[in-house]
Amino acid sequence: MAERYDVILVGAGPAGIFAALELANTGLKTLLLEKGPDLSARPRPGELQRSTPTDPRLRWQITGFGGAGAYSDGKLTLSTDVGGRLDTILGAESLRGLLRYVDDVYMRYGGTDRVYGLSAEVEEMRREAARAGLRLVPAPIKHLGTDRSFYILEAIREELGRTVEIRTGVAAEQLQLRDGRVVGVRTSTGEDLAAEYVVVAPGREGSQWLLDEARRLGLDIAQSPVDIGVRVEVPAPVLDKITSVVYESKLELYTRVFDDRIRTFCMCPGGEVTMEHTGGEDAVITVNGHSYAERKTDNTNFALLISTTFTEPFREPNAYGRYVARLANLLGGGVIVQRLGDLLAGRRSTPERLHRGLVTPTLRSAAPGDLSFVLPYRYLSDILEMLQAMDRLAPGIYERHTLLYGVEVKFYSVRLRVSPQLETDISNLFAAGDGAGVTRGLVQASASGVVAAREIIRRAGAGSS
Ligand SMILES: Cc1cc2nc3c(=O)[nH]c(=O)nc-3n(C[C@H](O)[C@H](O)[C@H](O)COP(=O)(O)OP(=O)(O)OC[C@H]3O[C@@H](n4cnc5c(N)ncnc54)[C@H](O)[C@@H]3O)c2cc1C
Description:
The chain is of the alpha+beta class and 465 residues long. The chain has twelve helices and 21 strands.
């Protein structure tokens, strides 16, 4: 006979974990199902920085208890405008309350008081950005750092271990329905687990699985753009003026040539560039960045991402992103790094040229190469325009020593239709976090887990026991 639960949560990233924290002590029998390893079996923060692209442990980078959040930079963006589309689903006012609540929970497990982006200097910076043709999106931000984020997760893991059943190394393989209602989950170990409610929160790692399941179940899926670009690395002093005020500057430009939207993303002052391994068996290596609370490098890195919506009848933005990433992997064995000066001079970077440069790459395994073999002209043109505009705000960015790593891709393409309670068109099946296209960052992902769990608690008539 199938084991019975009140609630099954699929995925132990921030969305699944925050749902589990809400459900703990309510009397509801809850299972948190995670396909990757438990937190204690994942590498410690920083352990993978010296890895090569073939290191098998890279597989656990965004999968396992903690999800992609385990090695995230821990920037908590406390704005309703950034990090997902919960503002349009719930309304800005409800979201504001939730952001405060999520921040309080992080504080309970070891968060930080310091908030960037609120001082009077932000307004002056916004004006300066406008003079350079850029839009600065102000957002209050707290920075936990990769090290502190991991300790926070350890504290949460310990507490949840006492209140919720957690199974790691087991994937949800199939969602089971009866009469238009979810009734359980079939696992990768062949077990049928019955549940009154299921919350799917599989993150980027599980976005393809969710897309396949959504298609199989006939759920409505909207296409969303794929974000493709590079990670830029400069000496930290070049961006000090900005990062000391806003920590991360969210800058946007609509480019002259293609009228594309290009934006900065995930700025990491004093941080490191990292590899990201996405897609399980059929994985591609992309690039990302993070930083520590305690230890700083001499460099600052950030992503430049271009959002492109493709023409009909194309409906596979994820596949397109993977194709471009795979090209970089084919030519560089993983991530490619190139000096801006070499790109502009139409030549590849070499180890000798990099060595002569002013910026020492923090991702040592990146192969010196030529990004013009990887990125279409449209993307390169957008990136160069953006760097020129940013140089007016922070002189030193459009410099020949600036490093460009490729490629950075954000896979978000599944966007399920959900109610304000995050229920899908299937009764009692809820969708939360990045994998369902609901969110794009730690705070909103965590908040989405809270929303789904609270609705389940309300319907089940449960409360704190
Ligand atoms: C290097 C890096 C730095 C980042 N820095 C920041 C930052 O500073 N600020 C910020 O806001 N965001 C940051 N992010 C993004 C942030 O980590 C994500 O937005 C967030 O983790 C999304 O949470 P989630 O719960 O939706 O999904 P995830 O954290 O991706 O977790 C999903 C989990 O579901 C599991 N799963 C998938 N499929 C299945 C299945 N079929 N069965 C069972 N389990 C499954 C996965 O293994 C994974 O553990 C960063 C990400 C990376 C990789």
